[in-house]
Amino acid sequence: MKRKANMGAYSILKRALDLLSSIFGLLLLSPLFLVIIIILKSTGEGEIFYLQERMGLNNKPFYIYKFATMLKNSPNLGNKTVTVRNDPRITTFGRILRITKINELPQIINVIKGDMALVGPRPLLVTSFQKYSPEVQQVIYRNRPGITGIGSLIFRDEELLVSTYKELGKDPLVYYKTYIYPYKGALEQWYYHHCSLAVDFKILFLTFWSLVKPNSELVYKTFKNLPAKPESLTLSGIKKL
Questions:
Q1: Residue 44 — left, alpha, or beta (φ > 0 → left; ψ -120 to 50 → alpha)?
Q2: Percent of the chain whose pLDDT exceeds 70
Q3: What whole-number distance in Å separates Cα of residue 26 and Cα of residue 108?
Q4: Which range of residues forms the domain containing residue 107?
């Protein structure tokens, strides 16, 4: 009962902070958004935003906003829902946006609308969500999905891992199902049981830190009780599979 009451207060305060921070952030980033919109409109296929259905709060789908980085028909081309490093479906400018994670910034609009939070579990495709175990599905979206989160931090180099596995002549979809989804699920369960404003602030700091130090392992030093990372989710471990 106490945890339920604490979670209620946490959710209300978190929503208020998310809303205020996102409105301020949107105003602050508007000059950058304008430049990106002009570049996207004049390059590639002229697409600015990419809307895609994702799983949201209480397992209800919503449409996520991103800057367009791939060809319009990319879900029906190549690896379909799996994106690898140097994927030919990614546009030239889109590659820059993806590497810097700037393509994720329009999700501030989702935060203002109430679809998302600044910190939370990453919103998955419905098909990807269904690959989680029932135990994970029951708890992952009791919190609003986030622009960043513990899963986003740990899997910042996800495209590189999948690309390395594919370069060995193996099916990237098998790698996702066998190695990535189980650990992602464990991380999101960890977040559900440990979420608090203090944890969220630490995740936000670590997100900005990862932009400066992409290979930093500070997240494991900050959260020492995280589920142990399997060797199969390292570049050296992939080569042993």
A1: left
A2: 92
A3: 7
A4: 2-238
